[in-house]
Amino acid sequence: MGATAAVVVAALVQAAGDDPVGTALSLSVPADYKQLIEEAGNTCPEVSPNLLAVLLTQESGFNPKAKSPVGAQGIAQFMPSTWESNGVDGNGDGKRDVWDPEDAIPSSANYLCTIADDVKDVPGNKQHNMLAAYNAGSGAVIKYGGVPPYKETQNYVKTISAAAAGPSGGGKSATPGQAGTAIDAAKAMLGKPYSWGGGNANGPSKGTCCSPNGSSGASVTGFDCSGLTLYAYAQAGINLPRTAAQQYAAAKPVKPGQVRPGDLVFYGSSATSIHHVGIYVGNGWMIDAPRPGKQVRYSPMDTMPDLYAVARPVSTVNKEI
After folding, report:
1. Structure pTM?
2. In terms of domains, do 191 and 156 share one?
3. Residues 47 and 106 in one domain
4. In terms of domains, do 188 and 224 share one?
5. Taking Cα atoms as reference points, which of 65, 38, 83, 21 lies closest to residue 262?
6. Tally of domains in the chain
7. 3-state secondary structure string across 38-99
8. pLDDT, tens digit, 9 for 90 and up, residues 133-192
């Protein structure tokens, strides 16, 4: 178990205690940046305040002093060359400062709009094309006539779009009763085999080929991790997207101290790289479909070293790019 994961798990479990009630929160935007994001998020039709907030969360976690190993700087993580050509003096103080959110946030929206203009003649969803160009470059979007067939880019577009269109602070999340129904449904599947791509709202199913290590679920009737959570919450009347990353994007993050049974536990290094999900059942344990060759089982939350977040399910509608 990684030290970071152990600290996160301990904080979640200790803070949650026995309190079954917690307030689910939507994407949290620091008060200092809300007005900036709301204003910059209307720079062009392809950019919205929600989308801009999601990107800033992904890029820096709203840290204006963030600096990446490759040299990206500030709250919007501009590379120096990109800042030179796209940075704006957002606060009118006579200088363009990549470390100043009052300059960097409007500059980020300006950059997104520039990219949107680059691919404006490409058919398809303009916002999806813009995000694909942000991730893979405008040339790739133009070459393929839309979101290119790169798995990383397609996942990026789906995840960011889902998060940007996700529930606002007023959205309804799973109730304790629905969470209990989902847990009971997951418990009833204990011992079912893991199947890559397996599981749907009706129960275990044959999967597909192939997992990252080459394992096929085509001949195995069972669940993969997100298939299990999708099934469990379908029994409670909540429709979840299919993949773990999409489920996180459509859920409401839960702060330490507000975690309760039924919340979903996500693993990965970022929102777009989430690779595993389980259903929290209390006391640091979850039910999950871990990996090929295993069965649906109880696992400790620190079963993987890259615990990313806990979030509460919200019903959503699946949409394809």
Report:
1. 0.57
2. no
3. yes
4. yes
5. 21
6. 2
7. HHHCCCCCCCCHHHHHHHHHHHHCCCCCCECCCCCECCCCECHHHHHHHCCCCCCCCCCCCC
8. 998 999 999 999 999 999 889 988 888 887 776 554 445 788 899 999 999 999 999 999
